[in-house]
Write a structure and sequence with these properties.
The protein is mostly beta strands and 142 residues long. The chain contains no helices and 16 strands.
């Protein structure tokens, strides 16, 4: 099933600008009295960047993230990884990452039997184990 992507629209008289969509299951269009504007829609502020696709900003640094820092926060001397944003002198990490530079993935349920967290809620299991948290032994191997 396809979902409708909201148009960035404004009233034809130059009034409010906001998402607005009418349409059938496979074709979306502006409702009567509205006109399509070019560009994507971002729910969060893009700071000193710009909205480049739905809910994603292209920041002044070239990074693509849900939000971008403003000039006051760009004075940071550190680079954040995995979509983290530099705020003053530390990184604010996106959900699923932690650490000084947001370089460490978080497995909320942990990894068992010697498994290692390699991505948000993603474990790499050692030989002989399987499952989302490496909780099951493979039959015949243990």
């Amino acid at each position: 099933m396809r979902t409708r992507t909201p148009h960035r629209a404004e009233l034809e008289d130059g009034g409010d600008r906001m998402p607005n969509v009418c349409g059938s299951r496979f074709h979306s269009y502006c409702c009567p009295g509205w006109k399509t504007l070019p560009g994507a829609i971002c729910r969060n502020s893009c700071g000193d960047g710009f909205c480049s696709r739905p809910n994603m900003c292209t920041c002044a640094s070239g990074q693509i993230a849900p939000t971008c820092p403003t000039k006051s926060s760009q004075q940071c001397n550190i680079r954040c990884m995995n979509g983290g944003v530099c705020a003053e002198d530390h990184c604010q990490c996106q959900k699923g990452y932690t650490g000084t530079y947001c370089g460490q993935p978080v497995c909320e349920s942990g990894c068992q039997n010697g498994g290692r967290c390699i991505g948000p809620n993603r474990c790499a299991c050692v030989y002989g184990f399987t499952g989302p948290q490496c909780e099951r032994g493979k039959p015949g191997l243990l």
